[in-house]
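Hello,

Our lab assistant flagged a job as stuck in the queue for most of the afternoon. It eventually completed. Since we weren't sure the result was trustworthy after the delay, we are filing this so someone can double-check. Below is the sequence as submitted and the structure that was eventually returned. Let us know if re-running is recommended.
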Amino acid sequence: MDDFSAWAEHLKHPLVLVGFVMFLLSSYLKFFAVNKSTDPKVIAGSTVFLVLAVIIIIVGLVLSFSQENARSPSGVMSPVVNAGGDVNITYNFPRDEHGNPVINDKVMARLLKNLEEKDFQLSDKQKELDGLIEKYVELSLALRKREDTDDFAAKARERLEEGDLEGAEKYLLQSYESNMAGVDENRKGAAADAYEIAEIKVLKLEYREALPYYEQAVKLEPGNPIYLNDYGYHLNALGEPKKAIAYYEQALKIDRETVGEKHPNVAIRLNNIGLAWDAFGESKKAIGYYEQALEIFKTVYGKKHSNVATVLNNMGLAWHALGEPKKAIGYYEQALEIDKEAYGDKHPDVATTLNNIGSAWNTLGEPKKAIGYYEQALEIVKTVYGEKHPLVATTLNNIGEAWRVLGEPKKALGYYEQAHVTVKAAYGEKHPHVAATFNNIGSAREDLGEPKQAMGYYQQALEIDKAAYGDNHPNVARDLNNIGFSLNTLGEPKKAIEYYEQALEIDKTVYGNKHPDVAIRLNNIGGAWNTLGEPEKAIGYYEQALEIDKEAYGDKHPNVAIRFTNIGSAWNALGEPKKAIGYYEQALEIFIASYGEEHPYVKDLKEKLDDLSSGAE
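-- returned structure --
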C-alpha cells in the first residue's frame, strides 16, 4: 500500500469526517458570516468551533492509526521453548485464558486435515498439532512485520489466515524470486522468504521438501541463529544428526556472542546439540550438553520449571542408553516431581515420565514394577485423549514389552495387537508407526515359536518403511535385521547373513563405522556364522562389536557383557572351556553391577558357569 492510499484510508475514519464537516462550517462562519458581525461573543464562538473541529480531526486520525497498529485483539504472547525455536516475546497474538493461541476455524481445519492425510514422524498427534499452531502463529507474526513494505508478504498472510497454505506459498515464492533477482540489495528479504517457505512446507508436513529452503535461508543469512537452529532441528528429525550438530553449534556460537552465556536461547541450543549426539549414539557427549542447558534453565527459571523437567528427562534417557537405568530413574523422578507440581497428576508430560520410569525398571529386570508405572501412564492418557490416541498405543506397547520380558508372549501379543489397532486408526495403514507395531507383533510371534509368521510381520514393516523413508533409513535396517533373525531361527543362517549385511551397510552409511547399531549388526552376523559351525569367524565379528560398544558406552555397559557372553559361547564351541569361563565371568560381573543378582541374564550366566565348571571337573 503506498503512502497516499494509506492516508486516504485514515481520512475515512468517522471522527475525521465529522471534524472535517465542522471545520468547513466553522470556516464559513468565521470568514463570511462573522466578518459582518462585530459581536465579540459571535467571533469567540466561531473560533472555538473551528478549534474544536481541528481537535476532532486529530483525535480521529490518532484512533485510526492506533487501530491499524492493533489489528489483532490484545493478548499475552508467552515465551515458548521448544527444540526448534527460541524464547521470544513478539507482537501480540490473540490467546485464550490458558495462553493457547486462538486461530480461526479455517486454519485449524487445514492443520487437522494435514494430520489426518499425511504421514508424520512424531508419536503424539496432539503435540504435533500444538507445534504446528505455534509455527502458524510465528509465521503469521513474521509476515505481519513485513507486510507494510512487501505486498507479497501481505498477500501471503491473507492466504495463510484463510488456511490456504498453497496460496501463501505461491506469494512467498514470488517474493523470493523478486528478491533473488536483486539479491545483493535484498539478501535479508530473500533469506526471510526462503525460511518462511520452509515453514509453510512444515505446516503442510512436507519436512523433506522444507530442507532446501532452510538451507537457502542459512546460505543467504549465515549469521541468523534461528535459521541455523531450525535447519539443524529438521536435519536431526530426518536422520542426519551429525550434520545437525554443525548448524546447532554455529547458532550456539552466535547466541553466546549476542545474548550472553546464560540466556535461555543458549540453553535451547545446548539441549538440541545433546539430542543430536544422543541420536548419533553418543550419549556421554549428550549428557555434557544437557548438564550445561540444565544449569542455565535453573538459573533463569528456577528449579521447578517445565524446561528443567524436559532436560532432566533427556538426561535420564541418555543414562538409560548408557546402561545406567538406576541413574536414569533418579533423573526421571526429579522430572516427574516438577511436572506434577506444574501440571497436576493427570497431565500427558506426567504420563511420558511414568512411561520412562517403567522402561528403566523393565531394563533392570523388574517388569512387574514396570507394568505398575505403565498402567498409571495408560490411565492418564486415556483420561486426557480417549481410547484411540497414539500415546495410548505407545503405553500399550510398553506393557506388552514388559509381559514379554516376564516370559508371557501371549499376553504381550494381546497388548501389541491393541496398540496396532490404535495406531492404524490414528495414522492409516501405511504409516511408520504401524510398521513399528508389526515389528513388535513379529517379536512376540518369534517368542511363541512361530518364526515364519514373525517374518511375515517383519516383511510388512519393511514394505511400509521403504515407502516412507527410502532404502537407506535406520528403520529399514531394523526391519532387514529382524527378517535375518527369523531366517536364522528357521535354519537359514546364510540367507540371514545377507539381510544382516544389508542392514549393516545402511547403518554404516547413516551413522559411520562406530555406532552401537553397527555393533548389533556385527554381533548378529557373528551369531549366524556360529550357527553355521564357524565359531572362529563368529569371534571376529563379536570382537568388532565389542570394540564399538566399549568405545560408545565404556567397559561396564550391559551391551559389553552381551558381547563377552557371545565370545565365551564361541570359544566353548571351539572346545576352549577355560577361555569361555573367563569371558562369562567378565559378563557376569557387569550384569550384577547393572541389574542385581535376580536378573534373568545373571541367572542364565550362573547356570552356564556351573555347567562348564562341573564339566571341567
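-- support follow-up --
The delay was a queue issue, not a problem with the job. The result is valid. Confidence is low (pLDDT under 50) at residues 1-10, 64-93, 118-124. The longest helix spans residues 40-69.
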